[in-house]
Specification:
By secondary structure, the chain is an alpha/beta fold. It is built from 19 helices and 16 strands. Strand 7, helix 6 and strand 8 form a beta-alpha-beta unit. It is elongated, with a radius of gyration of 43 Å.
């Protein structure tokens, strides 16, 4: 069975803790001296920090010494320890400090077995001699050069790590603030370019809350460098028992000291730690309080069963999302039903009338299986009658036929969590109502105009052909002119000549008909133009509704 039945949870981690006899700046003092390890181990065990990076300069000697002492003193402890080797490299930051680089290693035995050989092959140079040869990170060579002057080249470090370990075995940690720190700054010229190279090499950065947004690419001057977002963690960097007492797992911002608390949501393993690389903004927080805090009486902690072999006697739950993964007909839906029934039997039996399983033997009134839940405040449901929302299998599919009812249940919860979204939703609904009315009015107008155009078309058909009438009119005019020319005297004497009157009358009729045709055609064109504008208004309203 897994050591973490609840899955990933938030815990305090401190991955930068120096031990007694640390190679530089050792201020651990205890009387007698041989009790220093016991005192150090006890302070770590008594702290509320769960995972530690046991740190020393160029060495893992103290890591193994500490581990032996701790296992002897606290063999059943649930604490986790990783070796953290701190290196000084042969380049300086703009403050003139030699840049510091940490390497966190997995605590798996196959990795620990390789550490000594790795250090024996890692070349050393000195602040006095950058061309030093045939010196390595062995105890004898380090004592000869002295830890105060020992350095390595960053290229030698990365090359040796890749040669000796899998990429899953270690994390390179840069320092973003304090002594030996480096961080890209666009106004820093060549220093910025070197800082970016260091940034590319590092997986994680030691820093403080002010560094988080920078390395998560939430500020423009790093985002433009096309570097991936990286997690920022903080460590106490203790070198004495007083510092350990006052800084480990504590938020301290006074007396010139600034120490912060790192929370990581992961299993207490190196594989768990590596999850922060994939979710650097979600799985790690630098905060004085535990992230995602919830009231214990609202959170299910576990469910217990008796009189059955269908389920384990006790199943624990994570405070956040829990996924139950198994094959079909393995009891997932039944487990969910029992959880709900333990909290609210009446409500659950109403939601799932047939019982938690298939068949008459699994009806609620025939089940003698005892099941009860416990809340995260330690109370049972009899002591703290809680509330749940139970959604049985296929319930949402059936309810999807009534989408309005689902929407009305979701809206209050959504608007409570996102009040600004609630205001925008109400405004959008108001806009949609206005657009719907506008569309309705325009559609009515559309049909009125369509009917008008249809009527005008019929009128045009009944008014005969305009060109033919115009031709008749011209011929009539020519006939009249001819008659006038040939019979001028006769016309003058007989103004009421019947034939002439007939032609004049016909000519007038042609003029009236042409006027009607022109008027009807103009009216039809105006109606069509209005129809086009109506269509444009409807399309615009629909586009706005689609955007909402």
């Amino acid at each position: 069975m897994t050591n973490y039945p609840k899955g990933s949870e938030w815990h305090k981690w401190d991955l930068h803790v120096h031990t007694p006899f640390t190679k530089l700046n050792n201020k651990y003092i205890a009387e007698p001296e041989d009790q220093q390890w016991d005192l150090f181990c006890k302070k770590l065990e008594d702290s509320d920090v769960f995972t530690f990076g046991i740190t020393d300069y160029f060495s893992v000697e103290n890591y193994f010494t500490f581990l032996d002492n701790f296992k002897r003193k606290f063999p059943d402890s649930c604490k986790t320890f990783f070796p953290n080797i701190e290196f000084r490299i042969d380049s300086k930051n703009k403050e003139g400090d030699h840049i510091q680089i940490h390497v966190l290693f997995s605590n798996e035995s196959n990795v620990l077995d390789k550490l000594k050989g790795f250090l024996n092959r890692l070349k050393l140079i000195s602040t006095d001699d950058k061309e030093l040869t045939n010196k390595y990170c062995t105890k004898d060579d380090l004592e000869e050069i002295t830890y105060e002057k020992a350095m390595i080249k960053i290229g030698d470090l990365t090359k040796q790590l890749k040669s000796d370990f899998s990429s899953n075995d270690y994390l390179i940690v840069g320092v973003a603030t304090g002594y030996g720190s480096i961080r890209p700054e666009h106004q820093d010229g060549r220093g910025n370019e070197y800082a970016k190279e260091i940034d590319k090499i590092c997986d994680v950065f030691f820093g403080n809350p002010s560094n988080v947004d920078f390395f998560l690419n939430k500020v423009s001057n790093r985002e433009s460098d096309n570097l991936p977002p990286k997690p920022v963690i903080s460590g106490c960097d203790s070198h004495s028992f007083d510092e350990l007492e006052n800084w480990l797992g504590k938020w301290v911002v006074n007396d010139g000291n600034k120490k912060y608390i790192t929370w990581i949501k992961a299993d207490l393993t190196f594989e768990g730690l590596k999850q922060i690389l994939y979710e650097p903004g979600e799985r790690v927080k630098i905060s004085p309080v535990k992230p995602d805090q919830k009231d214990g009486y609202k959170i299910l902690s576990k469910i217990r069963f008796t009189n059955t072999t269908d389920f384990p006697e006790e199943i624990e739950f994570n405070k956040n999302l829990c996924s139950i993964i198994e094959s079909r007909s393995s009891g997932k839906s039944a487990l969910l039903a029992y959880i709900a029934h333990s909290v609210d039997p009446e409500y659950t039996e109403k939601m799932k009338e047939d019982g938690p399983g298939e068949g008459a033997d699994y009806h609620w009134d025939k089940i003698d299986l005892e099941h009860s839940i416990e809340w995260c405040n330690g109370q049972t449901n009899d002591e703290n009658s809680g509330k749940i929302v139970y959604i049985p299998q296929n319930y949402l599919f059936n309810e999807s036929k009534n989408s309005n009812e689902i929407k009305e249940k979701i809206k209050p919860v959504l608007f409570k969590v996102l009040p600004d979204f609630g205001n925008r939703y109400k405004q959008a609904v108001s806009n949609i109502s206005a657009y719907n009315q506008q569309i309705s009015d325009q559609i009515d107008n559309w049909f009125d105009l369509s009917d008008s155009i249809k009527s005008l078309d019929e009128q045009l058909k009944n008014l005969e052909d305009k060109k033919a009438i115009e031709k008749e009119k011209i011929e009539a005019k020519e006939t009249i002119s001819d008659i006038k020319g040939k019979n001028k005297e006769l016309i003058e004497k007989h103004q009421k000549n019947i034939e002439l009157k007939r032609y004049v009358k016909k000519l007038n009729e042609y003029d009236e008909t042409i006027k009607k045709i022109d008027g009807t055609a103009t009216e039809k064109k105006n109606s069509y133009d209005k129809l086009v504008k109506c269509a444009e208004v409807i399309k615009s309203a629909l586009d706005k509704m689609s955007w909402l």
